[in-house]
Amino acid sequence: MENYLIAMAVSAGLYALMALGLNVIWGMAGQVNLGLVGFFAVGAYVSALLTLKLGAPIVAGVVAGALAAAAVGAVVSLVTARLRGDYLAIVTLGFAETIRIVASNEIWLTNGTDGLSGIPGPWRAALTPEQFNLFYLCLVAALVIAAFALIERLAHSPFGRVLRAIRDDEQAAAVAGKYPLAFKVKAFAFGSAVLGLSGHYTSYIAPDLFLPLLTLYIKLALLAGGVGNNRGAVLGAVVVVTFLESTRFVVPLIPGLSHVQGAALREFMISAALIATLRLRPQGLLPEARMHPVLEKQK
Amino acid sequence: MRDWRFAGLRVGPQQVENLVIALAVMAAIFAFLAFTRAGKAMRAVADNPTLAGIKGINDTTIARTVSFVGMGLAGLGGMLLGLDTTIDPLTGFRAILSIFAAAVVGGLGSVPGALVGALVVGIGEELSLVILSPNYRSAVGFLAILAVLTIRPRGILGQRAY
Prior knowledge:
The complex is a heterodimer of chains A (299) and B (162). With 299 residues, chain A is mainly alpha-helical. Chain A is 73% helix and 1% strand. Chain A has helices spanning 2-28, 36-53, 58-80, 85-105, 107-110, 129-156, 158-168, 170-175, 180-197, 212-225, 230-250, 259-280, 293-298; strands at 116-117, 204-205. Chain A has a two-stranded antiparallel ribbon. The termini of chain A are far apart. Chain B is built from 7 helices and 2 strands; from the N terminus they run ββααααααα. Chain B has a two-stranded antiparallel ribbon with strand order 1-2. Chain B starts with a strand and ends in an 11-residue tail after the last helix. The interface between A and B is medium-sized, with 19 and 22 residues.
């Protein structure tokens, strides 16, 4: 039970990290990213291949994974930055699928659908499995806190203000002398870096871990928490992971369901939760703060 | 009924029927968008929602109607695909990248563009088998999207993309 709770907390932390990354792209800069799992996969594979095949230190692998995801993110957003938002949605969706196809088929590099195993973890050898799990949880928590502080600082900086201005009215921001293209690409690359950073999270990766469903979970986390609010991103991740895991316990209580039907029912519940959130509380549990002294008074 | 053969090709009656239905529906959609009041209102909202609102078009109603019609068309496409091939729960997901590619290559917002785009992407995917492994077939759609957006973002027949 203890191990289960720790594993759950670790995945909540990873979801929080990814939701924070998505918040920069979607919440602050208003760019739709339907393929965030692709950037996560890029980070995961780059880091795994560097540490596993070239024997690079773990920190170097993680940093390289984040940088690779950022570089890919910059390219993806550059292709569509001048176009309407729906093009970015299509390109990111296609990107994530293509990454998964490449990871499944370039067997010489990624070992195909069998995946890569034995990816080194920090001090895994020196600790017992229980100690390692606990240590890993602390590490993830530290990363979430660091990312939160950094992105919160970013949100209050002039850079974050420009991003919100572009999100709300790109033309007005451009008239005010800000070059939207540069800001959008930077925001997308930075968000992708955070997504890539969360990639080095387990000792085993395979293309099956990077299904579009994960994108949906992270989007749901940010939606539930509050798009544009970093506290909301973290809270939403915890809520979503708790919800996902609690459905695991609720489903067996319903009589007459086979295993497959139960799994399908869990996905139904998640979809229903998404629709209910959008219907009843589209601004999320912690709505984005309106950081404007005059608007704040008028409310 | 047996398949027809001509010029070394084999065409099944079902495939001909699918083609006829698809062409008829596309012609109807094109005529609807081009000539009817409701169709013009839809294009107006797509082009400039604020201006359409000033002219008294309710964009919520339009959005509902468009979703209704659009999802219906997707359902029709799925049905025709099922008649010709086989279906499973992931049929739609496998096709999604090719469909997006067809829309982008042809030009979003253009009915003839969708037709041309689908032809280009479909033939391109089949021809790609000459140089690529079949596993990469759906990645071809993605490459087509990237190429079109880099060179000609509005697609072959689209109006504009910014």
